[in-house]
Amino acid sequence: MKVLKKPASVQWELTPVCNHDCIHCYNYWRNDKTPLKHPNIDYMKIAIAICKADPVHVVLTGGEPLLVFDRVFEAVNYMAEKGIFISWNTNAVMVTKDIAKSLRKWNATAFVSLPCGDSEICDKIVNVPNALEKIEKGIKTLLSESVPVSVNMVISAYNIDKIYETAKVAKKLGIKQFCLAPASRPFGADRAFDEMAPPADVVEIMCREAIRIEKELGLKVSLTGALPGCAFESEMFFQHFAYKKSCTAGKVSYAVDFEGNMKACARDNKTYGNLLKEEVSVIWSRMSEWRDGSLLPTDCKECTSLKICHGGCRLEACSSTGRRDGMDTFARKQLIPPSFKKEVPVYLWSEKTVFKVYSGLKWSKEEFGWRVSLGPRFTYVTDCTRKWLLNHRTFCLKEMENEFGLEIREVLKTTIHILVNSGIIHSDGTNINM
Ligand code: SF4
Ligand code: SF4
Fold first, then answer.
1. What digits encode the pLDDT tens for the residues 159-217?
2. Does ligand 1 come within 6 angstroms of the Cβ of 142?
3. What is the CATH number of domain 9-198+247-292?
């Protein structure tokens, strides 16, 4: 696979400390006997090292990142001024009007953990009293300052019957994007986790509820996490949800822990170097095991869907089997290889449909072409496509065919598709007069 020079996405864990104590938290340090402390670290130095490697998007996470909001303020401001898109993974409990205003100023978004719309169950999951009320208050404050908020519900045995009810609470708050993820066994989890582990058919249940929520409540629902293709038993659920996300760790993204150590993924406990001591690019080159297939189990290496599935989540596999090259927990042996084929997206436009190129695109050179981004969204294009986009504010397929030749029509259609899906160009459906 092509190795990026500049990983596009970063997850930065600002602190290990959290004001919630969720039993499903993947943070591997949660069973440490010594009380957790905020790091004694220069956040600005880390921000400078991250920016030097030119990412598109930095996700601030933790622990609860808002616990160190004041300490990290200048560093976040610096990243935002460099044009990096910022988002916060938070439980929203610490949100104040001033924090919400700062997020708005930075054009940042918030991804808020909403464990359950039932207050008793919510308290039980996060181990803190009156949690739901505080989360709701934080979400309302963010929305009142026009900060885009999506919520994430981690599904366990405790809340699996409350998915729809929780979506209703989210809708009432004004949320438009609702995400679902099955609870994963955290590294080093004790027996308390067995009691709340999701049932074996959790993927089917999430899919069913997701479709119901979309239909009846009009929310946009996605399944977070890289679920394997062989987790989907029904074709309808497969077509709707399979392969929407695949693992980006060590390929497109990396994580930085609260001491500046670089990891392939926030969920991992393996570090590859410290970005206060070495360049991101040097440490990135040590993560080749995430790119060369050596972490894949044999079943995946032989699977006909590998190119589109990429083998699910290696850390989900590791936390349940003890091996990074184990099978993902949600993979089902009897569904390998998946018998369904993903429907090819239909080209929705005519050859004269006008496409407009968004302004404010950012470009970054890679070995094999260019990364083009707008806000948090990005894709990779060839030198030729870049030249075309820079020289046209509007265009249609016919004009591209005239320039590049009718024989590559299908390639051009795919290029247009990718550019639309990545938010680089758009169309209102009008046709050009030629
Ligand atoms: S290792 Fe798992 S959690 Fe991390 S990015 Fe990959 S799929 Fe996601
Ligand atoms: S066997 Fe591996 S590659 Fe094939 S669908 Fe399952 S997880 Fe994906």
1. 999 999 999 999 999 999 999 999 988 887 777 788 889 999 999 999 999 999 999 99
2. no
3. 3.20.20.70
